[in-house]
Protein backbone atom coordinates (compact mmCIF):
# COMPACT_ATOMS: atom_id res chain seq x y z
CA UNK A 1 0.00 0.00 0.00
CA UNK A 2 1.35 3.42 -1.03
CA UNK A 3 1.29 6.09 1.69
CA UNK A 4 1.13 9.73 0.61
CA UNK A 5 1.25 12.88 2.71
CA UNK A 6 -0.11 16.05 1.12
CA UNK A 7 0.69 19.40 2.74
CA UNK A 8 -1.04 22.58 1.55
CA UNK A 9 -2.42 25.48 3.58
CA UNK A 10 -5.38 25.95 1.20
CA UNK A 11 -8.04 23.55 2.44
CA UNK A 12 -9.95 23.39 -0.85
CA UNK A 13 -6.84 22.65 -2.93
CA UNK A 14 -5.51 20.06 -0.45
CA UNK A 15 -8.82 18.24 -0.01
CA UNK A 16 -9.58 18.26 -3.74
CA UNK A 17 -6.18 16.82 -4.66
CA UNK A 18 -6.40 14.21 -1.88
CA UNK A 19 -9.89 13.14 -2.99
CA UNK A 20 -8.81 12.92 -6.60
CA UNK A 21 -5.85 10.69 -5.74
CA UNK A 22 -8.04 8.47 -3.55
CA UNK A 23 -10.68 8.20 -6.30
CA UNK A 24 -7.98 6.99 -8.68
CA UNK A 25 -6.80 4.36 -6.19
CA UNK A 26 -3.60 6.19 -5.23
CA UNK A 27 -3.21 6.40 -1.49
CA UNK A 28 -4.22 6.48 1.28
CA UNK A 29 -3.55 10.23 1.49
CA UNK A 30 -2.82 11.86 4.84
CA UNK A 31 -3.23 15.64 4.94
CA UNK A 32 -1.34 18.41 6.72
CA UNK A 33 -1.91 22.19 6.69
CA UNK A 34 1.75 23.17 6.89
CA UNK A 35 5.33 21.91 7.05
CA UNK A 36 5.24 21.88 10.87
CA UNK A 37 2.34 19.41 10.63
CA UNK A 38 4.42 17.23 8.32
CA UNK A 39 7.37 17.29 10.70
CA UNK A 40 5.11 16.45 13.67
CA UNK A 41 3.75 13.38 11.88
CA UNK A 42 7.28 12.24 11.02
CA UNK A 43 8.47 12.79 14.59
CA UNK A 44 5.56 10.61 15.77
CA UNK A 45 6.91 7.79 13.61
CA UNK A 46 4.69 8.05 10.53
CA UNK A 47 6.30 6.73 7.34
CA UNK A 48 5.40 7.89 3.82
CA UNK A 49 6.32 6.83 0.30
CA UNK A 50 5.81 10.36 -1.01
CA UNK A 51 5.33 13.76 0.63
CA UNK A 52 3.83 16.47 -1.56
CA UNK A 53 4.77 19.90 -0.14
CA UNK A 54 3.18 23.13 -1.29
CA UNK A 55 5.94 25.64 -2.02
CA UNK A 56 4.09 28.64 -0.56
CA UNK A 57 2.98 27.90 2.99
CA UNK A 58 2.96 30.33 5.90
CA UNK A 59 5.43 29.75 8.71
CA UNK A 60 7.85 27.44 6.99
CA UNK A 61 7.58 27.17 3.25
CA UNK A 62 9.80 27.14 0.22
CA UNK A 63 13.12 25.38 0.14
CA UNK A 64 13.58 25.47 3.93
CA UNK A 65 10.52 23.23 4.31
CA UNK A 66 11.90 20.89 1.63
CA UNK A 67 15.28 20.71 3.35
CA UNK A 68 13.79 19.99 6.78
CA UNK A 69 11.40 17.30 5.54
CA UNK A 70 14.17 15.60 3.54
CA UNK A 71 16.37 15.58 6.64
CA UNK A 72 13.62 14.32 8.97
CA UNK A 73 13.59 10.65 7.89
CA UNK A 74 10.54 8.47 7.47
CA UNK A 75 10.09 9.67 3.90
CA UNK A 76 11.03 7.81 0.72
CA UNK A 77 10.58 10.88 -1.50
CA UNK A 78 9.53 14.52 -1.29
CA UNK A 79 8.11 16.61 -4.14
CA UNK A 80 7.16 20.26 -4.37
CA UNK A 81 3.80 21.43 -5.71
CA UNK A 82 3.38 25.07 -6.66
CA UNK A 83 1.17 27.58 -8.41
CA UNK A 84 4.36 29.33 -9.54
CA UNK A 85 5.57 27.98 -12.90
CA UNK A 86 9.20 29.00 -12.39
CA UNK A 87 12.08 27.18 -14.05
CA UNK A 88 14.42 28.45 -11.34
CA UNK A 89 12.26 27.06 -8.55
CA UNK A 90 11.90 23.70 -10.28
CA UNK A 91 15.63 23.30 -10.84
CA UNK A 92 16.49 24.44 -7.32
CA UNK A 93 14.01 21.96 -5.81
CA UNK A 94 15.50 19.12 -7.87
CA UNK A 95 19.04 20.19 -6.99
CA UNK A 96 18.15 20.04 -3.29
CA UNK A 97 16.89 16.48 -3.65
CA UNK A 98 13.18 16.75 -4.46
CA UNK A 99 11.76 13.83 -6.43
CA UNK A 100 9.75 16.26 -8.52
CA UNK A 101 8.25 19.69 -9.05
CA UNK A 102 4.54 19.64 -9.94
CA UNK A 103 2.75 22.81 -11.10
CA UNK A 104 -0.82 23.13 -9.80
CA UNK A 105 -1.80 24.26 -13.29
CA UNK A 106 -1.54 20.74 -14.78
CA UNK A 107 -4.70 18.71 -15.36
CA UNK A 108 -6.00 16.37 -12.64
CA UNK A 109 -5.10 13.33 -14.77
CA UNK A 110 -1.58 14.66 -15.32
CA UNK A 111 -1.27 15.28 -11.57
CA UNK A 112 -2.16 11.64 -10.82
CA UNK A 113 0.30 10.40 -13.48
CA UNK A 114 3.01 12.62 -11.97
CA UNK A 115 2.39 11.18 -8.50
CA UNK A 116 2.42 7.61 -9.85
CA UNK A 117 5.67 8.35 -11.72
CA UNK A 118 7.34 9.70 -8.55
CA UNK A 119 6.13 6.77 -6.43
CA UNK A 120 7.70 4.46 -9.03
CA UNK A 121 11.06 6.19 -8.45
CA UNK A 122 11.08 8.51 -11.46
CA UNK A 123 11.84 12.23 -11.24
CA UNK A 124 9.02 14.46 -12.45
CA UNK A 125 9.11 17.99 -13.83
CA UNK A 126 7.19 19.14 -16.91
CA UNK A 127 9.51 19.39 -19.91
CA UNK A 128 7.90 22.73 -20.79
CA UNK A 129 9.08 24.07 -17.44
CA UNK A 130 12.66 22.89 -17.86
CA UNK A 131 13.01 23.77 -21.55
CA UNK A 132 13.21 27.53 -21.97
CA UNK A 133 15.44 27.43 -25.03
CA UNK A 134 14.26 27.76 -28.62
CA UNK A 135 12.52 24.71 -30.00
CA UNK A 136 15.14 22.06 -30.63
CA UNK A 137 18.03 24.15 -29.26
CA UNK A 138 20.03 22.62 -26.44
CA UNK A 139 20.58 24.63 -23.27
CA UNK A 140 24.13 25.24 -22.02
CA UNK A 141 23.66 22.60 -19.31
CA UNK A 142 22.30 20.08 -21.83
CA UNK A 143 25.42 20.71 -23.94
CA UNK A 144 27.59 20.03 -20.87
CA UNK A 145 25.74 16.76 -20.28
CA UNK A 146 26.00 15.82 -23.96
CA UNK A 147 29.77 16.39 -23.90
CA UNK A 148 29.96 14.16 -20.83
CA UNK A 149 27.99 11.41 -22.58
CA UNK A 150 30.23 11.67 -25.65
CA UNK A 151 33.24 11.29 -23.35
CA UNK A 152 31.73 8.02 -22.08
CA UNK A 153 30.93 9.34 -18.61
CA UNK A 154 28.12 8.01 -16.43
CA UNK A 155 25.38 10.26 -15.02
CA UNK A 156 27.13 10.08 -11.65
CA UNK A 157 30.42 11.27 -13.15
CA UNK A 158 28.72 14.09 -15.06
CA UNK A 159 26.90 15.14 -11.88
CA UNK A 160 30.21 15.24 -10.01
CA UNK A 161 31.90 17.26 -12.79
CA UNK A 162 29.24 19.99 -12.70
CA UNK A 163 28.30 19.81 -9.00
CA UNK A 164 24.78 18.61 -9.82
CA UNK A 165 22.45 15.99 -8.38
CA UNK A 166 22.36 12.79 -10.43
CA UNK A 167 18.58 13.14 -10.84
CA UNK A 168 19.13 16.55 -12.47
CA UNK A 169 21.55 15.01 -14.97
CA UNK A 170 18.94 12.35 -15.78
CA UNK A 171 16.39 15.09 -16.51
CA UNK A 172 18.84 16.89 -18.79
CA UNK A 173 19.57 13.61 -20.61
CA UNK A 174 15.83 13.12 -21.11
CA UNK A 175 15.11 16.61 -22.47
CA UNK A 176 18.29 16.66 -24.57
CA UNK A 177 17.48 13.25 -26.09
CA UNK A 178 13.96 14.41 -26.94
CA UNK A 179 15.29 17.55 -28.66
CA UNK A 180 17.84 15.55 -30.65
CA UNK A 181 15.34 12.80 -31.50
CA UNK A 182 17.64 10.28 -29.84
CA UNK A 183 16.40 6.88 -28.63
CA UNK A 184 19.03 6.62 -25.87
CA UNK A 185 22.37 8.05 -24.69
CA UNK A 186 24.42 6.15 -27.28
CA UNK A 187 22.17 7.40 -30.06
CA UNK A 188 22.47 10.97 -28.66
CA UNK A 189 26.28 10.69 -28.79
CA UNK A 190 26.13 9.45 -32.39
CA UNK A 191 23.83 12.32 -33.41
CA UNK A 192 26.10 14.83 -31.64
CA UNK A 193 29.16 13.58 -33.54
CA UNK A 194 27.32 13.48 -36.88
CA UNK A 195 26.11 17.08 -36.40
CA UNK A 196 29.51 18.14 -35.00
CA UNK A 197 27.86 19.43 -31.82
CA UNK A 198 30.83 18.36 -29.69
TrEMBL record:
Pfam families: GerE (PF00196), Response_reg (PF00072). Transmembrane segments: none annotated. It comes from Stagnihabitans tardus. GO terms for biological process: phosphorelay signal transduction system; regulation of DNA-templated transcription. The lineage of its organism: Bacteria, Pseudomonadati, Pseudomonadota, Alphaproteobacteria, Rhodobacterales. The modification 4-aspartylphosphate is found at residue 54. InterPro entries: CheY-like_superfamily (IPR011006), NreC/VraR/RcsB-like_REC (IPR058245), Sig_transdc_resp-reg_C-effctor (IPR016032), Sig_transdc_resp-reg_receiver (IPR001789), Tscrpt_reg_LuxR_C (IPR000792), WalR-like (IPR039420), WH-like_DNA-bd_sf (IPR036388). Residues 131-196 form the HTH luxR-type domain. PANTHER family: TWO-COMPONENT RESPONSE REGULATOR. It comes from the Bacteria. GO terms for molecular function: DNA binding. Residues 3-119 form the Response regulatory domain. SUPFAM superfamilies: C-terminal effector domain of the bipartite response regulators (SSF46894), CheY-like (SSF52172). Keywords: DNA-binding, Phosphoprotein. This is Response regulator.
Amino acid sequence: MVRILLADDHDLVRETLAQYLAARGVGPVTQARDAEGVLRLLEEGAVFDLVLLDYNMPGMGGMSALDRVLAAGGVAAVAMISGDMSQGLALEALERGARGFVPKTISPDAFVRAVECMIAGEVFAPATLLDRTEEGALSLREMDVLRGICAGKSNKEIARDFDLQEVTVKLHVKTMSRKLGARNRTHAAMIARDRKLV
